[in-house]
Specification:
mainly alpha; three-stranded parallel sheet; 6% strand
């Protein structure tokens, strides 16, 4: 599929009919760089391929993987996925928890807050495209799921942070449960780094666009590995798709969609709701598990 997408990987002859490198050579060097994190010039003795060709092969390979497989292995979660995520959160004691948030990248790249400001994850909430999640905790109603996060994240109701200096048994129990549940995302990153050592290396060498393609390609390949280890007969691959681009109309009036976007935008960043949700979760966890 990569060869069909990018003719660069197809073996060719030059003008004097010298046969060039075949696709297996280029892809082998690329996979060794992704998996072992070795330098480009390390491949010369192993596969008889030049440094510049290795770099170009990696850049083209990861871009091809992202273009070909993103719709399947890097898609937004659908309703069935959301239900599974909420079930995992409930097992940890956190009702309607979508997961843990801890943006990470290659050393030398953005930190958590910089990545958050450019992330599409929460723009989906603001635009009203996320699956509806309505729930009640401790007698208070909420309309969005949330992610567990560490202290550097802003006080948004879409984040439930730990308590740095817990006071009393309730807060101590909450902080312990939150930090324990957050280890899931750390384990996920650890597995990704174990499979693809390139994500542990320095990022200064690569262009920003290539960095994004490398990270996405590693995640896609990781998801392929997970799928291959599972029973594929029980996986639903009938994903909904949108054919073509719908026509866009520009309006200068305050539409209902605009009002909804503004309301969602303010709700996501409402500090009062963030504090109330944390207090309700502290009480919920204590009543469910702490005083037993």
């Amino acid at each position: 599929m990569v060869e069909a997408h990018d003719p660069y990987f197809v073996q060719k002859q030059d003008v004097i009919e010298v046969i060039g490198l075949f696709s297996l050579q280029k892809m082998t060097t690329t996979m060794r760089m992704l998996i072992y994190g070795v330098a480009a010039d390390f491949m010369d003795d192993y596969v008889r391929i030049g440094e510049n060709t290795v770099i170009e092969s990696l850049e083209r390979f990861v871009k091809a993987v992202v273009v070909i497989f993103s719709d399947v292995y890097l898609r937004m979660p659908h309703n069935n996925d959301i239900a599974k995520l909420l079930a995992v959160g409930k097992n940890h004691g956190f009702l309607e928890m979508l997961g843990s948030s801890d943006f990470f990248g290659l050393p030398g790249s953005h930190n958590d807050i910089n990545v958050l400001e450019h992330s599409f994850v929460f723009s989906v909430f603001a635009e009203g495209h996320a699956p509806p999640i309505n729930y009640s905790i401790n007698g208070h109603d909420y309309k969005m799921g949330y992610y567990l996060a560490d202290g550097i994240y802003p006080q948004w109701p879409t984040f439930v942070k730990t308590i740095s200096c817990p006071q009393g048994n309730k807060q101590l129990h909450f902080a312990k449960a939150q930090e324990s549940a957050r280890k899931d995302v750390e384990r996920a990153f650890g597995v990704l780094q174990a499979h693809f050592a390139i994500v542990q290396g320095h990022a200064h060498f690569w262009k920003c666009e290539t960095l994004k393609d490398i990270m996405k390609a590693c995640i896609i390949l990781h998801n392929m590995i997970i799928e291959n280890k599972q029973n594929v007969n029980n996986i639903d691959f009938n994903y909904d798709a949108i054919d073509g681009s719908p026509p866009l109309s520009v309006s200068h009036k305050c539409t209902s969609e605009l009002y909804e976007f503004i309301q969602n935008h303010h709700y996501i960043r409402d500090r009062q709701t963030h504090s109330k949700l944390q207090e309700d979760l502290i009480e919920h966890l204590w009543h469910q598990y702490g005083d037993s």
